[in-house]
Amino acid sequence: MKLILHSPSSSSEITDIYKQAFSEAVRLYVVSAYLTEWDISLELNSECKKFRVIVGKDFGITKKSACLDLMGWLPAERKSQFLVADAIDGFHPKAIFWIDKKGKSFSLVGSSNLTKAAFEKNYEANIYSEISKNEFTKAEKWIMEIEEQSVVVSEDWLKEYQERKPAPQKKKSKTHTGEGSSIIALRLPNPSGSKQQVKIRRKQLAAHKNLKDSLENYFLECSMGKISSSEFYDRLPSVWSWESGNRLQGSGWERKGKASNFRELSTSFMNILNSRSDDRDDVVARELDRLKASRNSARKAFLSEILCLTFPDKYPVLNKPVHNYIADIEFRAPQGASEGAAYIDLAKKLRASLAQNPKHPAKNLAELDTVVWLEYGE
């Protein structure tokens, strides 16, 4: 353990530790109550498999310019990995946790936010230490709890966020200050008949539970080359169909998707299925980007539906009604986001919106999908 006491007259060891962490980490988490500066000279290890920056919004102290700097610094595939604790009031941690290629875990915890003053002008006290594997796992679980109440920082979020004015006004402002309830919540459709549609969807999800193991076994066999891509396609109706009661979307995909490379798609699905729950969003984004690069036509409507059936609380279906819905509410992912990052951004914001609307008939994203169909389907 090393005690780092910073003053305006001392050199910044904190800066050096950040550079070390970013350059060597294979898993890296940064949490800060405020973000007012982002060092664009930081270079993230290309082998970093898990990366999160989560900042707070309380009192409007986080600066939009710093957020934009960080967003611009992130590559396309990592645009969904910069989050704000949107649903948390009293988010005040100042910490960084990482594990390096040798398996050693470290932390820097103390008084320093991600601000220029903290690194240069302020009197700050921090503790830098190697930590045990158990302690790092404990930190990851804590980060995961925070992430469940966070959303991706996008231009849309920044538009709604009210940064604190340099000089406080004498009279109370009626505008949102960034303190209190969450800033962004997507408008959820709730047309007449939604409750009945949700009941039907619950029957479909129940039917899928009976077919889930068989479907996943087909994915496994295809990924291993035990059955061909065409055999996989031919077997699909026995485990995913309207007759079986577990197909969610309308017709059309079976014609467009027949020529898809299902072995490649099956490999992606198995990677997602076998991933750690706290890594799954990253794996989903990565696999979608990989499938897009190979122009796999089944990556959207088909794979997203399978993800929605398998993880109904986590992932939405990408179909025409959903595209109509997000166009209507003018949802936009962070500028320059990859396809996978944009999908995770949508998933996170839909999760957060449902959590903020407990009286909505839908209780998960699979149930919300049928409400979207009712409102936006043809």
Automatic annotation (TrEMBL):
Family matches, as Gene3D superfamilies: Endonuclease Chain A (3.30.870.10)
Renumbered residue ranges of the record's region Disordered: 163-194
Source organism superkingdom: Bacteria
UniProt-recorded name of the protein: Phospholipase D-like domain-containing protein
